[in-house]
Amino acid sequence: MTPTDALIQALRPDILGLPAYNAGLSAAHVRQQFGLTRIAKLASNENPFGASARVDAALARALADGVAIYPDPACGALRAALAERFGVDGARLVFGNGSEDLLSVAAHTFLARGDEVVTVVPSFGLHVICPQSVGARVIAVPMRGLEFDVDALCAALTRRTRMLVISNPSNPVGCTMDAAQIKRLLSCVPPGTLVLWDEAYYEYASATPGYADCLALLAESGLPWLLLRTFSKAYGLAGLRIGYGLASDARLTDLMNRVRTPFNINHLAQCAALAALADTAHVEASVEHVSAERERMRAALVALSYAPARSCANFLFFDAHEDALALSQRLLREGVIVKPWREPGYTGCVRVSIGSREDNDMFIDALERTAQRQINGMPAELL
Ligand SMILES: *Cc1c(COP(=O)(O)O)cnc(C)c1O
After folding, report:
1. Is residue 1 a part of any domain in this protein?
2. Distance from the CA of 371 to the center of ligand 1, in angstroms?
3. What is the domain range of residue 353?
């Protein structure tokens, strides 16, 4: 046994058993592997419009000041801007190197080994990985069809539950709970359980008529909660890594601030987020584009006999009627990157992001070609 073997053998079993996060393929990788020039990357729910032009200007100014100085560990300027927007005490906000970072910080702050966490399946990978990394036991409640199963979630919540983790809208499905469902779910949460409500797609969802005001419902619940949002999706800052949480009580964020690393948000990300937040027109244009293109993509999928789930986010989730990996591989060869789902029970499902008009056309054209050949009875390997 080598010294490294000895080290690894002594690790916590939760670490050795952690699944790897599936980050998908980069455009550069696919371009090179298949010798393609044009790639449609529709696997990570990024904003095809990119960030606001104000972000470019803010980054240029920030760079001119240099990068030798540590960033503001309190994210003071951004905190003040968000506190004003929400009308809350800024101490209730907490910032992360992406909201992913906050999922990890929340797990380290609020969970211990053996604690139970209730979430759904299919779900965002880190909703499972972060609790597991601290030794918590994750109970993943299957959706019913492609909708939240509130009754089953309520049945899974017990005195042993320390945390409920929900992405609303759901990633990967795109569906949402309405206000009555959210109220019912929250009424089932035992006291002393943290409700971690991930609203990464808030800007897209809130443009959908009937989208429930989750923040208001959480506030009414009287429970301890942490609402997560991000600058990665509608604001187009995924590459800079910045997200934030609003907690029911400043005592929760105070604890998270002790657990997180002090300089977890770099200076450029703080400057960019502040500029992005101010450009509401850019977000509105992005949301409008996504709403229109999502319906066009949905119609194209339906025309090919797929049945995408209801979505108010910037992606669609559908049953591929075959192994999702096989379909994704055929699309890859045409330069289209989508996300084949890998969770047990959902390995026949694909998530496709709403991209630029041109990228969406590439997806639709490629899917039409491969679906057509399937209909003509050619075996998938030859396609
Ligand atoms: C994209 C996404 C995130 C992560 O966002 P970052 O801020 O980029 O870390 C968190 N939760 C869900 C559900 C997401 O889809």
Report:
1. no
2. 31
3. 11-41+281-375
